[in-house]
Amino acid sequence: MAKYSKRYAAVAEKVEEDRLYDPEAAIALTKDLSTAKFDETVELHLRTNVDPRHADQMVRGVAAMPHGLGKTVRVLVFADSEAAEIARAAGADFAGEDDLIAQVESGWAEFDIGLAVPSVMPKIGKLGRVLGRRGLMPNPRSGTMVQPQDLPRAIQEAKAGRLEYRTDRTAIIHCPIGKVSFETNQLMDNLSSLMDAIVRDKPSGVKGTFLKSAYLTSSMGPSVPLDMAVLQALKAPE
């Protein structure tokens, strides 16, 4: 049985037993339960009813977080010379082709989001073993394969708060939605954008209930159970 600190046990008592919290109340409580000496991340943990063993039940997508995630996002773009210049001008932290591919192949991966133009995709296939397990491999499905003319938009979205989500092998989606220091309305906007995207991404192979339960928590705090009906009705802000 897990042992918790006195600090954790004291704040955990504020979570009412058998209550399912509406998202806004859950966010406010999660902020209140955060007592660490650093700016904790607020996280959503969502249990789905998918079977990750079946390809037609995998959940994977992208959500634009209106208020970002509270950290500097480093963007890398695999692109030939002309597209690389477009990427650098648009604010990419790293952009290039053969030299950059060789650097990543050697094990370097000091970036948060990887993009690639279509012409370079065949060259980076070998990087799957390095980037795939870290969720950094560009691919069309996640919107990270980008036409050169669309690079400025894609880089801007990535810098602003582009969040990739996916089910793990236990059918759970784990996602940050911001920092404890964010205002409640900012975390609500981010949560709404994320849930809107996930609900729309319900796999066709899933029968019955798609989302079973959800919890909000901070990095070091106790979890707060969410009202699923209210959570699934959230829509991305206009």
Tell me what you see in this structure.
There is one protein chain. This protein is α/β, with parallel strands linked by helices and 238 residues long. It folds into 2 domains: 18-59 and 167-232, Ribosomal protein L1/L10, rRNA-binding domain (Ribulose 1,5 Bisphosphate Carboxylase/Oxygenase, 2-Layer Sandwich); 75-159, Ribosomal protein L1/L10, domain II (Rossmann fold), CATH 3.40.50.790. It has 9 helices and 9 strands. The chain has helices at 6-12, 23-33, 81-89, 98-105, 121-124, 128-131, 151-161, 184-200, 228-232; strands at residues 41-48, 60-64, 75-78, 94-96, 113-116, 162-166, 172-179, 211-218, 224-225. The strands form 3 sheets. Strands 7-1-8-9 form a 4-stranded antiparallel beta sheet, covered by helices on one side. Helix 2 packs across helix 8. It is globular, with a radius of gyration of 19 Å. The mean pLDDT is 91.
What does this entry show, briefly?
The chain has 238 residues and is of the alpha/beta class. It has helices at 6-12, 23-33, 81-89, 98-105, 121-124, 128-131, 151-161, 184-200, 228-232, and strands at 41-48, 60-64, 75-78, 94-96, 113-116, 162-166, 172-179, 211-218, 224-225.
Please work out how many helical segments DSSP would assign. Answer: 9
Strand order of the largest sheet: 7-1-8-9
CATH fold category name of the largest domain: Ribulose 1,5 Bisphosphate Carboxylase/Oxygenase
Q: How many angstroms separate the termini?
A: 45 Å
Mean of all residue-level pLDDT scores: 91
Shape: globular
In helices, the fraction of residues equals 25-40%
Number of spatially distinct domains: 2
Q: What does the radius of gyration come to?
A: 19 Å
Total beta-strand segments: 9
Sheet/helix structural class:
alpha/beta
At the fourth CATH level, what is the homologous superfamily of the largest domain?
Answer: Ribosomal protein L1/L10, rRNA-binding domain
Tell me which oligomeric state these chains represent: single chain
Q: Which range does the strand content fall in?
A: 15-25%
What's the SSE pattern? HHEEEHEHEHHHEEHEEH
Low-pLDDT runs of 5+ residues are none
CATH architecture call of the largest domain: 2-Layer Sandwich
Sheet with most strands: 4 strands, antiparallel
